[in-house]
Amino acid sequence: MTMLAVRAAGSLRGAAPLDGPARDSWAQDDLTSRPSAAGRASAAQTGPLVPAGQAPLVLLHAFPLSSQMWGPMAVDLPELPILAFDLPGAGFSPTLEPATIEAAGRAVIDSLTELGVDRAVVAGVSMGGYVAMSILRDAPERLAGVFLMHTKAEADGPEARRGRLETARQVLAAGSTEILRPMASKMVSPTSRATSPGLVETIEGWIDQATPGGVAWAEQAMAGRPDAMAVLRASGTPASVVAGADDPFATVAQAEAMVDALGPTASLTVLTGVAHLGPLEGPNVTARLLREFYRRVLA
Q: How far is it, in rounded angstroms, from Cα 184 to Cα 201?
């Protein structure tokens, strides 16, 4: 069983607040190298990190970032119980075998089990969306709802697969993630670059923190991911899809196809002036959408 590092916030008991100048420096629960969150909380007599019967909002980040990307948005959701996991090879989480999206999904499920969580509302951006859809395939009973942002259900085509595997080869050969830095400007819209001039630099810094091994793991996992359209068509889980009008990686048309597959109970929101990272480009509106969805599915 592989445990993932998790950052906690909101109304979870014992969670660190996300206000102040270091709001994106979340309290770390590195379950791979330290006692589990549940064990440490018990030892401190503070109770479990997630109170029994409470369904947390689980946040799964985009590639090639880590759970720290959620900090600016999470401060707008102080009332919600938030768990943000570092996916395998990102942040404080180790890589694991095999290098597949399915393995990442199982690691999220195992980590929730370790924390005593039976059901959760899961929100994923980009690669995090792929992992959320994998959980929807393998353990739908663990999901109270799924919120898919800036992602797509279709598998990569041959050219995209080759590109991912070549990137994995290059970062390992160079021992550096520098070749990914140009992604930062592509992940945010022209509007975001104009209104938040420091955002690209912040994302570049986060990319610099990624490890070659972690990046290669993620690229290999994404290259081999299966098509998830049939999973969406068969799903009865409440779902919402969010797309950025200026997203070059996951288009509005691909989001519309996902909503069509999910059926009439699913909703689509298209964010204008946003590309691939709504939680960073539009943290307030993304927080509002997540709050409304969380309350709706758990009403």
A: 8
Reported as a single tens digit per residue, the pLDDT across 97-107 is 999 999 999 99
Q: Is residue 91 one of the residues assigned to a domain?
A: yes
Q: What residue type is 60 in one-letter code?
A: L
| The pair of three-digit structure tokens given for residue 246, joined into one six-digit string | 């200026």
**198 within domain boundaries:** no
pLDDT of 151 over the 50 cut: yes
Q: Strand 57-60 relative to strand 120-125: parallel, antiparallel, unpaired? A: parallel
Peptide bond into 98 cis (omega under 30): yes
**Helix, coil or strand: residue 270:** strand
Phi-psi region of 20 (alpha: psi -120 to 50; beta: other; left: phi over 0): left
The gap from C-alpha 283 to its chain's centroid, in whole angstroms, comes to 14
Q: What are phi and psi of 6, to 5 degrees?
A: -135, 140
Amino acid at 193: R
- Distance (Å, rounded) from C-alpha 48 to C-alpha 50? 5
Say how far apart CA 241 and CA 251 lie, in whole Å.
12
The three-class DSSP label of residue 83 is: strand
Residue 38 has pLDDT above 50, yes or no: no
Look up the domain containing 266 and give its range. 6-155+227-297
| Structure confidence at residue 47 as a pLDDT band (50, 70, 90) | low
Let me know if residue 183 belongs to a domain: no
Please compute the mean of the pLDDT values over residues 36-63 and round it to a whole number.
Answer: 69
